[in-house]
Specification:
By secondary structure, the protein is of the alpha/beta class. Helix content is 50%, strand content 14%. The protein has 13 helices and eight strands. It has helices spanning 9-14, 16-28, 44-48, 52-64, 77-91, 97-104, 110-117, 137-142, 147-153, 177-180, 182-198, 209-221, 231-235; strands at residues 2-5, 32-35, 72-74, 107-109, 126-133, 157-161, 203-206, 227-230. Helix 7 (110-117) packs across helix 9. It starts with a strand and ends in a 7-residue tail after the last helix. The mean pLDDT is 94.
Length: 242
């Protein structure tokens, strides 16, 4: 299957190696991956901050960069949720109404695409250690993704998945929330990381680079013995450089 890859702006700027692992994972699953570096953002940061005119301008560029009938995959449930749910607020009953509906029906978060569309969940990945999975708000609440990442992680050799207390609670990032309400945001990150440490985890795994950036920042600042990993990095581990 030929797919168009959308790399979120957070990942492009802060963890581009994860984007390369997404390509490796999709190619191993039998996909031909097309990537256009001009597809830079879905408009979510501006939208969440209340700048809807700016978000619409970015969204127009996003919509026009994809074909009506192409399959779009992104390693971000947050971006997927933005397009599928909140583009309605920007483009319903506009000249891009039909274009928007077409793209909304063709965009998939990575784990959803692998498990439910390709029905491919084994990559021969290896990662020794104990991990917890963090349900991002974008995945759980906006895309209704819960079991798909867990199914993929259950096939990773050497990886022990353990339960995370309050795993459906937000990590505290929330885009500009982390800037406007930094004290609350930091406390929420602390709770998430403390729960992971109490579970004996060495890794916190999720589908969203923004959540992981937020949590890793708290971890680094406090020199804690745990690290974050994107799902794609886990799935490409142990074979991706072979």
């Amino acid at each position: 299957m030929k797919i168009d890859l959308f790399v979120p702006c957070f990942m492009d700027q802060l963890s581009p190696e994860t984007a390369w692992n997404v390509v490796k994972v999709l190619e191993k699953a039998g996909c031909t991956v097309s990537y256009d570096p001009e597809r830079t953002c879905c408009g979510q940061p501006a939208f969440n901050a209340g700048f809807w005119d700016d978000a619409k301008e970015v969204g127009i560029k996003f919509l026009k960069s994809f074909a009506d009938d192409g399959v779009i995959v992104t390693p971000s449930a947050s971006c997927t949720g933005m397009v599928k749910n909140y583009y309605n607020d920007l483009f319903t009953n506009t000249t891009l109404h039909n274009k928007c509906r077409a793209v909304q029906g063709n965009i998939y978060e990575l784990s959803d695409f692998l498990v439910n569309i390709l029905q491919f969940d084994y990559f021969g990945a290896e990662l020794d250690g104990r991990a917890v999975y963090h349900d991002s708000c974008g995945a759980l609440r906006e895309c209704h993704i819960k079991e798909e990442p867990r199914q993929l992680l259950s096939k990773v050799h050497g990886l022990e998945m353990v339960d995370l207390k309050d795993n459906e609670t937000c990590c505290g990032f929330g885009g500009t929330f982390a800037v406007k309400f930094d004290g609350i945001s930091t406390a929420m990150a602390q709770q998430k990381v403390d729960n992971a440490l109490n579970a004996g985890a060495e890794y916190i795994i999720s589908t969203d680079a923004s959540c992981l950036m937020h949590l890793q920042g708290y971890i680094d600042k406090n020199s804690l013995p745990i690290t974050t990993m994107h799902l794609a990095d886990v799935l490409a581990n142990g074979w991706g450089n072979v």
